[in-house]
């Protein structure tokens, strides 16, 4: 009996081992296109549906969409996978990681990504899917093209928008959503004086994107070399008057009890929930959340008005930044797989899909033909709030300040910024002193990054 | 560097001489055997560091860290050679290293035990020793995942943590320690045996002040970046361990009473231990949520004040983290205390009762001393838990905020590693040193008062 059990055990072990080896020996499937994206919600479902449609249309390919909980987690997973020599085919990298994606290398020390524009090579259509890259709207074009060429395929693109609770506006006698930061303070003073005033007046995530927006509005630069657009940025500046002016404004709003800080860094849900629960009257957040903010407000029983991001009244205006992510194509793929991946990128952004993506989420329609399609459908007349983001981005003067910064270690530098802001908001640190410290920390991160990647 | 080598060699010789003499062997032989260890030991750290800390262009901090590393290498080599060398020199050879007389040996087949040990040793080597060596290596490099280069940066990752400054909170306990030490010495000399307790009390005070001074000294060595992390780690750890043990013992005493359904209570009380630290973090995150949390709701129903938002209130944030981690470990503590209480001699307690000891006296002088082995074990496991596991709770509960108020050593390691993994490696070695120091202190301080029974 015991012997029989021993034999059975050995056999099972042997079976397992051979099974595992068999799995690892599986030849690479040229038709498999692995797409990694940084969403796990309805946006992942949307992408999976498009992938299924694409697979149906092109049965020789199988598109597998894999969702990750955040862009940061996704980027970590990508680094690990490429070091193992098993990167996916297409990766969605967020705008802050643009420089890092351009510099990324694979296990052999070769560039990890191929330029999408190069790979398209001037073709009008790939595997029957019309190329839409040259139709991409200017806002995305000016952020993502460096040296006049797209390294990656734009997909979800947003900007910051201002959301107002109409009930509070009317009660306080404020006619229209505030256009300037000065108006915001004035409106907040009125709203907070109401008998049934909300707990706080305004909220937005403690995310570096917001002060970056206000810096760009005023034409300020975050880094040298024209924000890293005419050469590799070597110095970061978190002490400029344009930068500090908004930090100080933020601190004033906070200290007067107008600003609600959820207490969590880079927390997108806290402020949004506070607005949805009518705990605050105003919200600043991504246009990518426009659809859900407006519909949730309707469900709760109030109207959410959408307007442009406020500016400082007496300062010049350069433009607002985009946010979002692009699709990067891994280098060194078999030609067949590469074309399949390129075709899927074009399919995902074709006018019908781009328009649907915009309607589902609130990300801007990424191509001019998608905008035209939406216009002919009368979408913007029915939903005027959905046009605010596109209009706001169209006001940009296209300068390096308004295009946004390209910076190494930008994700870690942003973390330094949110940490500094938290110290200012919760422990009363002085903006100028605290940002001198943050500037030194950020500069060290950048120096270290450049010493690893440049030259 | 040559004078340093001379110093460690002399130190080795002195240690060897003392150790050999204490074992009744020739002091000269000991000095001759251990001195080379003192001479060559520093190479353990200096070779991997390429002696970079003593290059002329390096600053004072680099030299200081280098000297510590130099002395550390020497100390390890001297200790190892002295320990093994003395055993080999004494009659009985390596057998002297075994504790007590209950060791066994394979007489005929010396290969067999090694074969049997191979699986264990392989796992230890792959998952413990190699990562430790790798951590040392990483801590001297600038490392980013996926970067094409990994330059050697000497001890920069360590000096980034340092920034010594003389602060009042170091000077005061140090001065108090000096006074107490002198007083204890004087009192001991003049003590009349058996009559007064002053000498003992002073000695105990001196012991407490030594701990306080060492902690303050360590804190004052760290720079402005790492000092708050060190302080936070101390607060969270001592809060979790001390309050956790006190509450655990209290509840264990209660459920040890003959009450109906106590086995149900016991089972329910152990339950939270089965929950992982991140889940505990999420639970308390929801409970204390400033908008919808039930804790705030209850607080505002029962008291006229509004509960502050723990996500922006530093003190409350630390309290919530401590409460969450105590809640998490409480089941474990209770379980062990219940077991311990069952072993307290009832005869002894009855005898004490007949002698007129009240409940508190019975607890203080009988139950508590009987529980010391359990308490010692629980302190060790709870401190380890507080150092390494609370991170999971913090990550989901506060993320280290607000303003770093709950960023303990482990959280800070994860945080700095996003920029430079070398910084994280240096931080984990500092944590490693802290754990070593705390464990050594525990074995000295608690070990002495542990009664394992007859």
TrEMBL record, chain A:
Task: Record the organism.
Answer: Stackebrandtia albiflava
Q: Name one Pfam family in it.
A: SBP_bac_8
Identification of the protein by name? Carbohydrate ABC transporter substrate-binding protein, CUT1 family (TC 3.A.1.1.-)
Keywords, in A-Z order: Signal, Transport
| Subcellular location(s) per record | Cell envelope
Keyword set includes Oxidoreductase? no
Q: Name one GO cellular component term.
A: cell envelope
Q: What is its main location?
A: other
| PROSITE patterns assigned to the protein according to its UniProt record, in alphabetical order | PROKAR_LIPOPROTEIN (PS51257)
UniProtKB/TrEMBL annotation, chain B:
* Keywords per UniProt: Cell membrane, Membrane, Transmembrane, Transmembrane helix, Transport
Q: Does the keyword Transmembrane apply?
A: yes
Entry's Gene Ontology cellular component terms: plasma membrane
Annotated transmembrane regions: 64-84, 114-132, 168-187, 208-226, 232-256, 268-288, 316-339, 366-388, 425-443
SUPFAM superfamilies named among the record's database cross-references: MetI-like
Q: Which coarse location class describes where this protein primarily resides? A: membrane
Q: Where in the cell is it found?
A: Cell membrane
Give the way it sits in the membrane: Multi-pass membrane protein
**Family, similarity comment:** Belongs to the binding-protein-dependent transport system permease family.
Q: What is this protein called?
A: sn-glycerol 3-phosphate transport system permease protein
